[in-house]
Here is the input.
Amino acid sequence: MDLLKEKISTQGNVLSNNILKVDSFLNHQIDVSLMQIIGKEFKSRFKNVPVDKVLTVESSGIAPAIFTAMEFGVNVVFARKQQSLTLNENILTADVISYTKNERTTINISKDYINSGDSILIIDDFLATGEVSKGLIEIIKNSGAFITGIGIVIEKSFQKGRIYLDNAGFHVESLVRIKSMDNGKVTYL
Amino acid sequence: MDLLKEKISTQGNVLSNNILKVDSFLNHQIDVSLMQIIGKEFKSRFKNVPVDKVLTVESSGIAPAIFTAMEFGVNVVFARKQQSLTLNENILTADVISYTKNERTTINISKDYINSGDSILIIDDFLATGEVSKGLIEIIKNSGAFITGIGIVIEKSFQKGRIYLDNAGFHVESLVRIKSMDNGKVTYL
Here is the structure.
């Protein structure tokens, strides 16, 4: 997706060999026009896939998930990273290690919003080690729903997440696939 | 806003005299069609107000903020509640106490995305004690930008937030104003 590559080139910030900062359009400021285009792109890539709900994780996954869900005419569910007083005990959980925050968190989804038999499209901002995806997959498996696709805005293909998801047989679509970020320079697959 | 009142009546869950759970359309599952209508409603209520950016706080504010920003043709900035490895030191912070999570957190906004002189519309899911709004106001004040409006999806008018914001002279628009939730029943102003 050339527009996204251009955004990464002009506004992205390579902080180390494996951390890319894209706060200007995705992780802190949200470029709403770009997100609309991203939603249409995911719709096109998953056009033959049944989707009852789009699932993501707070917070940076919410914007691309919303615009994808809008294209499919379905709702979004976002997994929460902490349990709040307004989440009851009717929840499915999985432990994940956040790559950028370097801490273990529990992600939660209420059983009320993922039904057995639902076709679920997972949308997330980044794919790196695949920890978050594994957590979501575990939760969906326990809910009796099905994952019909996994859409990623930015994939760091040199980390192990993509290989894991491919080997597990999922239909993965990443809008950009980064081969390396060595010496501060982003190169694509 | 009658549609929102109907959603609260049919899907909301009064957990106590002051906690309303609306996980089915706003705080966990996102009703995308409703959010589109909410965006148009905020646009209509703030139609004479200059808006360069919509500001919210992760995570539940993001959906209504995005659809409001889309109507105005501007971007969203969401304040983060934790500092991640990809946020650098160029940040403005404020301490707030989360009402539903009952804990003190620091909210952060990068100076890169709020410019001196910007007209900022704050959008949030709930207004209760006004703690989060006060934090955002403090940050905007320190950035040299201006708050031109504060839009709230659900206001609990029996708590002190609205009175504080009115007294401080802000233009506040709440889509529904809840007078009380005594005995599990929501009544409106």
The interface with chain B takes residues 15, 19, 21, 23-24, 27-32, 35-36, 58-59, 62-63, 66, 69-70, 74-78, 80, 82, 84-88, 100-102, 109-110, 112-113 of chain A (CB under 8 Å). The two ends of chain A are 12 Å apart (CA to CA).
